[in-house]
Design goal:
Layout (H helix, E strand, L loop, with lengths): L1 E2 L10 E4 L8 E6 L2 E5 L8 H8 L5 E4 L5 H4 L2 H6 L5 E4 L1 H6 L10 E2 L5 E4 L2 E7 L8 E5 L2 E5 L18 H11 L6 E4 L9 H15 L1
Parallel strand pairs: 4-5, 5-6, 6-7, 11-12
Antiparallel strand pairs: 1-2, 2-3, 3-4, 8-9, 9-10, 10-11
Helix pairs in contact: 5-6
Bound molecules: zinc ion (ZN).
């Protein structure tokens, strides 16, 4: 678990678990005795390890950037062990992908522009294209992009069911208007300080190649 404050001291309380093999990156915010995850990694991820490091009975919140199993598979362990968490996800991806969530409660992000978790505000931007219910999350000057945009101009695949390259073009175009400094993608390493440049590059590449 990497402390993101080592890269930008405004990211106090934020941590990063690098995705390996078929697991996404996981971003963690530990606030007092509570824990927030942005994405859970794949099915083999041991989220409990992080949860137990916070306190005996922390509140647990999980924002899913989209429904693909390499971002949501970590939920399986929590469900198997009967651990309760508030799960924030766009309903389009629950219908499409997250079968594990279909009969469980979740907080639908489809009509929400902002959410409040442990007293902090997070902006929600619907960015379909990689999947119908993909979202990006903004906290302060940071954007968490899931599989919509990565570093160095890479962008999410659109050849999975529910993907659309025209829709992804529109979503990335919209992201260019947002003022952010740091970019935390679902795969590959984070971008510290140059977020807008990398979003623009993704836009240039998707317009040129898709
Ligand atoms: Zn994905």
């Amino acid at each position: 678990m990497i402390n993101l404050a080592d890269f930008d001291k405004r990211l106090k309380d934020w941590y990063y678990v690098e995705g390996r093999n078929f697991s996404s990156n996981i971003y963690i915010r530990i606030k007092d005795n509570d824990i927030l995850f942005i994405d859970t990694g794949g099915p083999g991820t041991n989220l409990l390890k992080y949860i137990e490091s916070v306190s005996d009975k922390p509140r647990i919140s999980i924002i899913l950037t989209h429904g693909h199993w390499d971002h949501t598979g970590g939920l399986i362990e929590l469900y198997n062990k009967g651990i309760e968490a508030d799960i924030y996800v766009h309903r389009d991806d629950v219908e499409f992908y997250v079968s594990i969530l279909r009969d469980k409660p979740f907080i639908d992000l489809s009509n929400m522009e902002r959410i409040f978790i442990y007293g902090d505000e997070y902006k929600v931007i619907h960015t379909p294209g990689h999947t119908p219910g993909s979202i990006c999350i903004i906290w302060d000057n940071n954007i968490f992009t899931g599989d919509t945009v990565f570093r160095d101009g890479w962008f999410g695949r659109t050849d999975f069911p529910g993907g659309s390259s025209d829709t992804l073009k529109r979503s990335i175009s919209e992201l260019r208007k947002i003022n952010v400094e740091n970019l935390f993608p679902g795969h590959m390493t984070p971008v510290i300080g140059d977020a807008k440049k990398h979003i623009q590059l993704a836009y240039d590449y998707i317009m040129a190649y898709l």
